[in-house]
Amino acid sequence: MVSVLLLEPHADSRELYVSFLRHVGLRVVAPETTDQALRFAHIADILITGIRVNGSEDGLGLVRRVRARRSAKQLPIVVLTACALASDEIAAKAAGCDVFLTKPCLPGELVRTIRKLTGVRLPAHGRMAKVRLRRGTRRKRARNA
Fold first, then answer.
1. Minimal CA–CA distance to 77: which of 16, 125, 19, 7?
2. Angle between the N-to-C axes of helices 11-23 and 107-118, in degrees from 0 to 180, rounded to the nearest 10
3. Which end of the chain has less neighbouring CB within 10 Å, N or C?
4. Model confidence over 76-99: pLDDT tens digits?
5. How far from 144 is each of 45, 90, 134, 141, CA to CA, in Å?
6. Which architecture does CATH list for 3-144?
């Protein structure tokens, strides 16, 4: 089972991503600060972090510290952030991230990114289709009402 280390500063977004990622069969650890995340980095198969996160440093500082560890040099790192400027992406890539995603980011896109970076086959395809179908069904019902 793939272990995801998710550092998301906003509780609502963190809850949404954690629920969805667990639903598709991933193990998720979601610390609230960079300091806590650093303690879990050694068990993660992939790190997903924002830029403006809680802790003694920002998300890019976390990326640099994780990359500096010999055991985590090959750890895939995704920066998932509302900071959408080109300079933010350049800074994230310079810090060592593999993929830069901007919010809003649908959970399905995040799962596809995890698949691509880890090479794991997730049973998410069918489940994501059901989630999409349910959403579409609700919209149809709302329009017809």
1. 7
2. 60
3. C
4. 999 999 998 999 999 999 999 999
5. 45, 46, 15, 5
6. 3-Layer(aba) Sandwich (3.40)
